[in-house]
Every structure is written in structure tokens, then in C-alpha cells.
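Reply to dn_fold:

You asked what the input looked like. This is it:
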Amino acid sequence: MNQDHQDERTRIRGAMDRLLTGQATVSNGSMTAGALAAEAGVHRMALYKRHVDLKREFEERVRKETRQIPETENDSETPSPNSKGPSRTRKPRS
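and this is what came back:
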């Protein structure tokens, strides 16, 4: 494992601790992979590609330590079955 990779892992673990103790410094503090990445200063895809194990560890810690179900970024973007999706308004023609 190269030094940059190890540094990322160290930052991600520190970010996990901050999020789980409610001490977020740069993210919105939500229990999402996006907030974890922002808090760690890494691109979100790093958690999905290089550090999948840490993403899973975070989700497991969220379940155990907060007794919450980890949020996914898509939850807020997915319309409910009863909704018609995002509203779009048209500009009136001139």
C-alpha cells in the first residue's frame, strides 16, 4: 500500500469518528458516504472504488453506534411511488 493510499485511509477513519460523535468540521454531518468523503477530503468515488471496506465499516458503525440505518445519497433524489418526480416549470414563450 503506497503512502497516499494509507493517508486517505487515515483521513477516512478520522472522518468516521467525527461524524459518529457529531463533531463534523467540513461536511453537513449526515451519515452518508458523501458526507464521509467530504469530511475526509477525498472524492466520494474513492469510497466506492478504493476503500469499499471503509465505506462498509462506516455503515456498520452507524448501525451499531447510532442505532440508525445509514442513509444513501439516492434516498433524497428518488421520488416516492406516489410522487410524479421532480417538478419542471416551463418558461413562457415570448
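DSSP finds four helices and no strands in the chain.
Hope that clears it up.
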